[in-house]
Amino acid sequence: MPATHIPKFLRAAIAVAVLAIAACQSAPVQEMSDARQAISVATKAGAAQHAADQLQMAQKHLQSAEQLLNERRYTQARREAVSAKDSAREALRMTEANVDAEAH
Predict the structure, then answer these.
(1) Distance between CA 87 and CA 42 in Å, rounded?
(2) Which residue, 7, 54, 56, 103, shows the most beta carbons closer than 10 Å to its own?
(3) How far does the chain reach from its first CA to its final CA, in angstroms?
(4) How far apart are CA 8 and CA 88, in angstroms?
């Protein structure tokens, strides 16, 4: 039997396994929560005034993650949620630096 010829039953078994693995992907609940929390902290710290672009980027990533989550595209949603958190953390860092600079 040539290596390129795969019996039908084996192809069916592989297809079932792939679908089972895909179905087991879990929603990025923790990543979404982390992103929302980071955006909230940055907002309360004053990022809208001191790091508006970075905060907007975080919010856009979160909106994208929410849309992907609704579409059950969990891998992409997870990436967007992590990007949202990272952007929010950067907004917070920039805000803190600006507030410190203004204080001195």
Answers:
(1) 10
(2) 54
(3) 78
(4) 50
Residue 102 to residue 89: CA distance in whole angstroms: 20
- C-alpha 47/C-alpha 39 separation (Å) is 9
pLDDT number for residue 8: 74
Instruction: Give me the number of domains the chain comprises.
Output: 1
Q: Residue 96: how many CB atoms within 10 A of its CB?
A: 16
CA dihedral sign, ordered 58, 59, 63, 66: positive
Is 15 inside a domain boundary?
Answer: no
Instruction: Express each pLDDT in 8-22 by its tens digit.
Output: 777 777 777 665 565
pTM, whole model, 2 decimals? 0.75
34: domain range? 28-103
How far are the Cα atoms of 9, 46, 55, 101, 104 from residue 79, in angstroms, in the given order? Answer: 36, 26, 17, 33, 38
